[in-house]
Amino acid sequence: MKFIGAGARPGQPQVDHDLIFTVPNILTVLRFMGVPLFVWLVLDRKEYGFAVLVLAIMGSTDWIDGYIARRFNQTSRLGRILDPMADRLALISVAVTLVIAGVVEWWYLTALLVPDAVLLTASLFYFRNHPDLPVSRIGKIRTALLLVGTPLLVLSKLPIPLTELYFVIAWVFLGFGLLGHWVAAFNYFRAIVRKGKMQSADDGGRR
């Protein structure tokens, strides 16, 4: 079974519907709700074991909602915007939480925030809004790597066997995830600039 683009039916084009209450969108909202639960478990309760479980559920719903959307023709314009927003919120909020808890250093959070800040600035400059670009394959792989590496890193802080191994594996995933994060950001930036210039040219031609 393929993990990237799973559920897509060959020969049937994907259409973004004007739907709101779909199963994938509900799962995305649940992923949003998992963020404060994770923050509470780590910073208030110090329950790293349950925090790992929450991260695992959040990561699995990221794959499941995409599968359902493609398999059962429930892709939507709202979902195309909500899904990457949920991923960003989860990755950044979890990173902030782990920095405060002393699990990771500030440089990790900075490596996540700088590309997103550049993309946000470019989006506001060209569109004053969301650029509505499709998620790239590199972006999907980046998210998957970070969503796997993060719970492994938290797992390495538990009093269980093989924590050193979990720590090393976690940073292999996170290292490649951060690399993919910057590559994906560079590609998105070029796409934003290209789309923004084309839109400006079209607007100028209609005047």
Overview of the structural elements:
This protein is mainly alpha-helical and 207 residues long. The chain has one domain: Four Helix Bundle (Hemerythrin (Met), subunit A), CATH 1.20.120. Helix 1 runs parallel beside helix 3 and helix 3 packs antiparallel against helix 4. The longest helix is centred in the last third of the chain and has 44 residues. The radius of gyration is 18 Å and the shape is globular. The protein starts with 22 loop residues before the first helix and ends with a helix.
Output the CATH homologous superfamily: CDP-alcohol phosphotransferase transmembrane (TM) domain
**Beta content:** under 5%
Mean of all residue-level pLDDT scores: 87
Order of helices and strands: HHHHHH
The second-level CATH architecture is Up-down Bundle
Number of helices: 6
* Structural category: mainly alpha
What is the CATH fold-level name? Four Helix Bundle (Hemerythrin (Met), subunit A)
Strands, helices and their partners?
Layout: H1 23-44, H2 48-71, H3 77-100, H4 106-127, H5 137-155, H6 163-206
Helix pairs in contact: 1-2, 1-3, 2-5, 3-4, 3-5, 4-6, 5-6
